[in-house]
Write a structure and sequence with these properties.
Chain B: Pfam families: BPD_transp_1, BPD_transp_1_N. Chain B: It is found in: Cell membrane. The complex is a heterodimer of chains A (529) and B (313). Chain A is built from 17 helices and 21 strands. Chain A is α+β, with helices and mostly antiparallel strands and 529 residues long. In chain A, the strands form 5 sheets. Chain A has a 7-stranded mixed sheet, with helices on one face. A 6-stranded mixed sheet of chain A has the order 14-18-13-17-15-16. In chain A, α16 packs antiparallel against α17. Chain B is mainly alpha-helical. Helix content of chain B is 77%, strand content 0%. Chain B is globular, with a radius of gyration of 24 Å. Chain B starts with a helix and ends in a 6-residue tail after the last helix. Chains A and B meet through α1, α8 and α14 of A and α2, α3, α7, α8 and α13 of B.
């Protein structure tokens, strides 16, 4: 086995021909993209999970009615639309040539059933459903959504690019209750799922859908023509990022969705690879406080925590000193979108330990420890805990850090009990920017008490504003409302923004044309030999 | 002999039963929730509750245990809570890579370690002995993943002789199958070579002082024949024991190697299932591991009789 490189290459070639025969020569003509995605694909229902890998899977095999282009503008995808003069009724018409992967045509009834399943589980969908009076198929290609009052929510919701996007499914599949994960892999999207090659947690294979009719417009963001230029895309799970990087450098794979920042120097400057960063695929760090338990049921303590924390240290711990892959940002809805604001930027971005101590003194802090949950098994979250703990200590808090795996964090954070009985005081996490930039759907600013996300902040005015945002039909009003929500979220410390960082793709220089979209998608991508 | 085998197999049933109950209870008492893992970080409490109900996780614990044990008794290991695929199918998919990796590692470890141990015993106290023992300390001390990374760097990245990662079943051809097993097997075999070589050395040295060795030498046998024909055979029982223990350790210890070399085996399945709280799969795999341990112990006991005719069952 231990041969000189040239001899080994010859031997490999000879053996490959001997073992694989002529069939392999045909197979070699296929263009395959080998990709390592952010997580293993283990489930197949994109409507019941907000896991990003399922969103990415959904974009491979399903299609959406509407889509947002690179500039964020809503564009027709499967359907075009018209709005009635009173602004209450949206009529959608499916374009020609849409077929499911089993060859049957896509109908309006399929779309109505798909929306009806999706709007039960997605936050934005739920808001849309609450404003809707009727949804019905008019004929094979047309359906309508009629609302109780004029609203712009339909376009906002049906073009939602992340979280749980509204993917269209066959009616018989979409009628599955949301409590039962679907197992069908029939979509109408640009790729077909190769069920026979699927190994949950190991490998997923997507084949070019030869029957897919792309739109004629050029690809832009999630919108435009989804032209597939390769035969096959293989997602391989690699649990060890170092292995993925080695495989990349050996030419065994072509794409790593999220490369750890500390491994990037291995490929930086190498012309065989590109480091690709799409602003829309970045993430926001956030710290969440438990409003139902002392001390953070008291606004003074929450303000003290906000003053104690600063963003740069955490970002440096995540992406390394001197890297330009991160940015401080005080806006709860992110700094790259239309709702960016610098409200209380200095308080949020920089640590102010002395202010924190003053606030704790005013509140009569007795030195009782607060419990911080630290997830240690995820590369982006593991560095957060120690930084948060130290900053809070500098600000006068006594902190107990409890290290655990992410599964234990998500189990424990659902408890409203006191810490001694399995509850918690603080945890931190990240959300991708397309989710963060959606004032209706973003969980970080929802403040409906028991119905809010973990931490259960209760600020009724924020809920009123979120509903008003959903009803607003012009951008100017939406921006104004979003900024009001931002101020209330910061004043009440509903969440503490902890800066933004880029998720960096490592891409073989053989690949080109990947759309700058909210999720990594493989249409429009070419692979040269 | 047959009655011994039957007795041992029957005695394994209560062991496996106890393991099953223990695993079931430990998993249910550990923090974590498969519904949360499926639904993702932004799921609402209502969504989670619906998922838990559909998975049967809201039923009383005793009822869940009885359902699972009944299904197990009928050969149904359950369905993965995460992927919806039968646990048996997932295990069968992952069994081949782990078996191939474990077997190649064991064979490599035995083929390398036994001669090394015998040579070290023969050259006791001399340079060769010290070298072998020094290397065995290194084999124990350096973590497998470090060895793996070094092998990848040298033999895959620099020399380009082997692929960095992955697994190909034997049905895809022997060359791709073997190419992808060489580096992981070498990496994984290091600690086992160290362990077995030390045990071989110690036991060969011990029997070298026995009267029958002196007799063999007095007969004029060559030293190599004395070592291989008399010393090694008589030192076999503890060596077989340690090889058996090594195989048992190996089956549970392939996780790191499978991760470093991206081999989709059982070790990774267990790790993924634990992180996702996929109860049914964890239970099924741990039961399988327990059954394998029982079989290995039985085989080791039977081999005692082969190498030492005084041992009879």
């Amino acid at each position: 086995m231990f041969l000189p490189k040239s001899a080994s290459g010859l031997l490999k070639g000879a053996l490959a021909v001997a073992f694989l025969g002529a069939g392999s020569l045909t197979a070699q003509a296929e263009t395959t993209i080998n990709a390592v995605m952010n997580a293993p694909l283990r489930a197949l229902d994109p409507a019941i999970s907000t896991a990003y890998i399922l969103r990415n899977y959904g974009y491979m095999i399903y299609d959406t009615l509407l889509a947002r282009d690179e500039a964020g503008k809503v564009q027709p995808q499967m359907a075009s639309w018209t709005v009635s003069d009173d602004g209450k009724t949206y009529t959608f018409t499916l374009r020609d040539g849409l077929k499911w992967h089993d060859g049957t045509p896509v109908t309006a009834a399929d779309c109505v059933a798909s929306i009806a399943r999706w709007d039960q589980v997605d936050k934005t969908g739920q808001v849309m459903a609450s404003l809707m009076e009727t949804m019905q198929a008019v004929d094979e290609k047309t359906f309508t959504l009629t609302f109780k009052e004029p609203t712009g929510i339909a376009l906002l919701a049906l073009s939602k690019p992340s979280g749980i996007p509204p993917f269209m499914m066959q009616k018989k599949v979409a009628e599955t209750p949301v409590s039962t994960p679907i197992t069908s892999t029939i979509g109408s999207g640009p790729f077909k799922f190769d069920a026979s090659a699927y190994q949950p947690g190991v490998k997923a294979v997507f084949l070019k859908n030869e029957d897919y009719v792309p739109r004629s417009e050029p690809s832009s963001g999630m919108a435009g023509g989804k032209v597939v230029k390769v035969d096959k895309v293989v997602w391989t799970t690699m649990p060890d990022p170092m292995t993925a990087m080695n495989a990349m450098m050996s030419g065994e794979i072509d794409f790593i969705e999220q490369a750890p920042h500390d491994l990037l120097p291995l490929v930086e400057g190498n012309p065989d690879f590109k480091l690709q960063t799409f602003a829309k695929q970045g993430s926001q760090n956030l710290v969440r406080l438990n409003w139902t338990q002392p001390p953070f049921d008291n606004l003074k303590y929450r303000e003290a925590a906000l003053e104690a924390l600063g963003q740069q240290s955490m970002l440096s711990a995540q992406v390394g000193n001197g890297k330009d892959a991160s940015t401080t940002c005080a806006a709860v809805f992110g700094c790259s979108g239309p709702y960016a604001t610098d409200y209380k930027a200095d308080d949020i971005i920089k640590p102010h330990p002395e202010k924190s101590k003053e606030l704790l003194k005013e509140a009569g802090y007795d030195g009782s420890p607060i419990m911080l949950m630290q997830a240690t098994d995820l590369a982006s979250l593991a560095p957060q805990g120690p930084v948060i703990a130290q900053q809070l200590r500098d600000g006068g808090f006594k902190v107990d850090v409890v290290a655990m795996d992410w599964a234990s964090v998500v189990a424990r954070r659902s408890s409203k009990a006191p810490v001694a009985e399995g509850g918690w005081n603080i945890f931190s996490t990240t959300n991708v920017l397309p989710d963060v930039g959606d004032p209706v759907g973003f969980i970080g600013t929802a403040a409906g008490g028991d119905s809010a996300w973990f931490g259960w902040p209760n600020v009724p005015k924020i809920e009123e504003l979120r509903a008003a945002f959903a009803r607003a039909s012009d951008t100017e009003t939406q921006v104004k409302i979003a900024k009001e929500i931002d101020q209330l979220a910061i004043d009440n410390v509903v969440m503490i923004p902890m800066g933004e960082f880029a998720n960096i793709n490592v891409v073989s220089s053989k690949l080109s044309g990947m759309p700058e979209a909210e999720a990594p998608v493989f249409w429009n991508v070419t692979k040269s030999e | 002999m047959l009655s011994f085998i039957i007795k041992r197999i029957l005695s394994a049933i209560p062991v496996l039963f106890m393991v099953a109950i223990l695993v079931f209870l430990v998993l249910r008492l550990a923090p974590g929730d498969p519904a949360v893992m499926i639904a993702g970080p932004n799921a609402t409490p209502d969504q989670l509750q619906q998922l838990r109900e559909s998975m049967g996780l809201t039923r009383p614990l005793l009822e869940q245990l009885i359902i699972w044990l009944t299904n197990m008794a009928h050969g149904d290991m359950g369905t993965s809570l995460i992927s919806g695929k039968p646990a048996t199918e997932l295990i069968m998919d992952r069994f081949g890579p782990t078996l191939a990796l474990s077997l190649s590692t064991v064979v490599l470890a035995i083929v390398v370690a036994i001669p090394l141990g015998v040579v070290a015993a023969w050259q006791r106290g001399k340079v060769l002995d010290r070298l072998v023992m020094g290397l065995s300390v290194l084999g124990f001390s350096v973590p497998v993943f470090i060895i793996g990374y070094v092998l990848i760097l040298v033999f895959a990245r620099i020399l380009g002789w082997f692929p960095v990662q992955g697994y190909q079943p034997l049905s895809n051809g022997f060359v791709p199958f073997a190419q992808r097993l060489v580096l992981p097997s070498v990496a994984l075999s290091f600690p086992y070579i160290a362990l077995i070589a030390r045990i071989v050395r110690t036991n060969v040295i011990e029997v070298m002082n026995e009267d029958y060795i002196r007799t063999a030498r007095a007969k004029g046998l060559k030293e190599s024949a004395v070592l291989m024909g008399h010393a090694l055979g008589n030192a076999a029982v503890p060596i077989i024991t340690i090889i058996g223990v090594s195989i048992a350790m190996l089956i549970g210890g392939v996780v790191v190697t499978e991760s470093v070399f991206n081999i989709p085996g059982l070790g990774r399945l267990v790790l993924e299932s634990v992180l996702a709280r996929d109860y049914t799969v964890i239970q099924a795999v741990i039961l399988l591991f327990s059954a394998i341990y029982v079989v290995i112990n039985l085989v080791v006991d039977l081999l005692y009789g082969v190498f030492d005719p005084r041992i009879r069952y």
